[in-house]
Each structure stands twice: as C-alpha cells, then as structure tokens.
Amino acid sequence: MAINYPNGKSYVNSAESSKKKQAPKKDPSYAKRGMTLEDDINASNETYLAFGKAVIHKKPTPVQIVQVDYPKRSAAVIKEAYFRQASTTDYNGVYRGYYLDFEAKETKNKQSFPLKNFHQHQITHMQQCLKQQAICFVLLRFSLSNRIFLLEAKELIQFWELKDHEGRKSISLESLEKCGHELYYSLAPRIPYLDVVDILIQRSNQELG
Q1: Distances (CA, A) of 93 to 14, 20, 194
Q2: Which end of the chain has fewer CB atoms within 10 angstroms, the N or the C?
Q3: At a CB cut-off of 8 Å and minimum separation 6, what does 101 contact?
Q4: Where are the domains of the chain?
C-alpha cells in the first residue's frame, strides 16, 4: 500500500531504500571475464615487479619483417613477416634467486585440456630447463568456467609421453584437479601463482636435502 505525506510526496522506508541502493555482490570467479589469461598474467607480473617480489616478463617473439608499406608518413603497415625461430615458452624471470620458465594456455573445452595446444619444441625446452634445476610449469585456464591450474612441467611431460605411446589427446579436468594446483583470482596480483611456486621451491629444497 502506498503511503503519502501531506505534501503529496511518497513515504520511503529507509530500510527498503538502503536495500535497493546496495549493489549486488559479484561472484569473484566471474569478475575477470573478458580478460585473456595473458592479460591477467601480465598484470600479475606488473604487481610482483612493483612490490619488488619478482622480475618476470613475457618473452618477445622473434619476427623477421620482409615487406612494409607506408600508406602515410606517420604510419607503417607490415605486409609480410615470418618467425625467425619456433618460440619456446611464454614467460621467464627470476624469483627468490630461482629461474622461472613457464607457458600459458587457454581452452574453451569444459572437461579436458587438449595436448595439441603444445608443441614438441616447447616440451623439449621444458625438459632442458628442468635439467638446469629451473622452476618450470604451465598455467592452464578453462575459459568458460574461469578455472586456472598450475601444472608442473614434469607432470605435463608425462601426459605428453602418454600421447606418443598411448594416443592420449588431452588432460582431463579430473586429472588436473588431482595433480595440478588450482589458482584463484585475487585483487593484487590477479593470479597469485607465486604462492604455488613457493611450495615448489620448498619441496625442491627438501628433496635436495
């Protein structure tokens, strides 16, 4: 029932009014939709750098430019180019005196991560990094559910070898839940993957005695 004041203005219950003004709470798992995994990692690395925690950057892709057109003096358009060499992994850097090297991949699949997203030269590079005691891993995101996993390189290599020997085509979500480390979005950094790296470093030190 509507209630009006003598001057004709409507009465508004303060409790109801405050409820209407409150913005609906957002599910943090959906807060970052629209951002690519690369965007989120780059932002996280900027945060780590700003706080002096780590120096980690995306590797530049070596490209040979063959033909450039100049439609305007102030603009240039690359018409033809090619990769000088096959890229290895996306990111590398230093954290706590350790060399980090990792790859980032996304999929729209719901229940598995395709192994075809990786290439043999990337697997070989990870194997070489592991031989030098590097901290090496991959960050995998299921873009539809916005779930992110850190999977150690040695685990990825085992799945890759099963691909060659048994014809395995993907890593199931269930397998990632068991042998990977799930990451959750935060404010700064967006993806706190170094929290898991701390665990890997601690475990590595224990194994070395």
Answers
A1: 55, 48, 12
A2: N
A3: 89, 91, 92, 125, 126, 129, 134, 135, 136
A4: 30-208
* Residue 148, amino acid: I
Q: Residue 94 burial (CB < 10 Å; 0-12/13-18/19+)?
A: exposed
- Give the pLDDT confidence score for residue 24 in this predicted structure: 43
* pLDDT tens digits for range 155-188: 999 999 988 777 889 999 999 999 999 999 999 9
Contact 74, 33 (CB under 8 A): no
Identify whether the C-beta of residue 112 lies closer than 8 Å to the C-beta of residue 170: yes
Confirm if 113 and 107 have CB atoms less than 8 A apart.
yes
Cis link prior to 114 (omega < 30° from 0)? no
Q: Quick one: fold of 30-208?
A: Trna Endonuclease; Chain: A, domain 1 (3.40.1350)
Closest CA to 122 of 149, 160, 151: 160
